[in-house]
Amino acid sequence: MSSEDESIQAVITLLSYVPSGDRFDIACAALVVYEYILTFPLELHVIWGHKLRGAAVLFILNRYITVVYAILIIVLSLGTWRTGLFRNLLMILFLPNSCSAVGYTAEVISCIQCLILGVFSALRVYAIGASGWWAASVAILMGITPVAIYIV
Questions:
Q1: From the CB of residue 90, how many other CB atoms can be counted at a distance below 10 Å?
Q2: Where are the domains of the chain?
Q3: Cβ distance 49 to 41 under 8 Å?
Q4: How open is the CA angle 73-75-79, to the nearest 5 degrees?
Q5: How confident is the model at residue 22 (pLDDT cuts 50, 70, 90)?
Q6: Residue 38: enclosing H or E segment and its boundaries?
Q7: According to the model, what pLDDT value does residue 81 have?
Q8: Among residues 79, 127, 39, which one has the least CA distance to residue 47?
Q9: 69-80: pLDDT as tens digits
Q10: Which residues belong to the signal peptide in this entry (predicted)?
Q11: Interval 93-144: pLDDT, tens
Q12: What dihedral angle (degrees, nearest 10) is formed by the CA atoms of 79, 81, 86, 87?
């Protein structure tokens, strides 16, 4: 048996212990990470090759918050955070309640994603609409409403 076949079999064995609902989360997160790896050279040319402006900062925040969240989903879904290296790493980073700290980290990342989406939506409404800042203000208020709900 080749090493590639053994690697595939190891992944299948690992995923057989994961609940089916988490497999979908892992697949989606893996797709996000894969897309980021594929488009990284283009990002280097288009974004990092020029002066950073507001739109570029918004793009970078959106891109890297999403990839961090995807990696967090993969780690949490595989259950490897309970044992071994990930448990030790989490105990170092999030003493003493690593489980709740990871959950809080996921919630904070969700809030940041909602804020980014609200700002992006407001900029789109401002650019497309003739109503000016009034419509953009309504759009950003609607976009940040989930953040207020998460906080409460």
A1: 19
A2: 1-78, 96-152
A3: no
A4: 110
A5: low
A6: helix 20-46
A7: 47
A8: 39
A9: 888 777 777 665
A10: none
A11: 555 555 566 677 778 888 888 888 889 889 889 888 877 788 889 988 998 8
A12: -140
Mean pLDDT over 58-86 rounds to 74
d(CA 143, CA 113): 10
Claim: this prediction has a pTM higher than 0.85: no
Tokens of 32: 């996000």
- CA-wise closest residue to 120 among 57, 68, 77, 65: 57
CB 147 within 8 A of CB 115: yes
- For 7, 117, 130, the CA distances from 124, given in Å and listed in that order, are 45, 10, 11
CB 106, CB 69: distance < 8 Å: yes
Helical H segments across 79-97, by residue range: 84-93
Residue with token string 């053994």: 6
Residue type, position 19, single letter: P
Contact of 123 with 136, CB cutoff 8 Å: yes
Given a contact cutoff of 8 angstroms between Cβ atoms, the answer to whether 103 and 59 are in contact is: no
My answer on whether omega of the bond before 41 falls inside 30° of 0, hence cis, is no
Cα first-last separation, the chain: 55
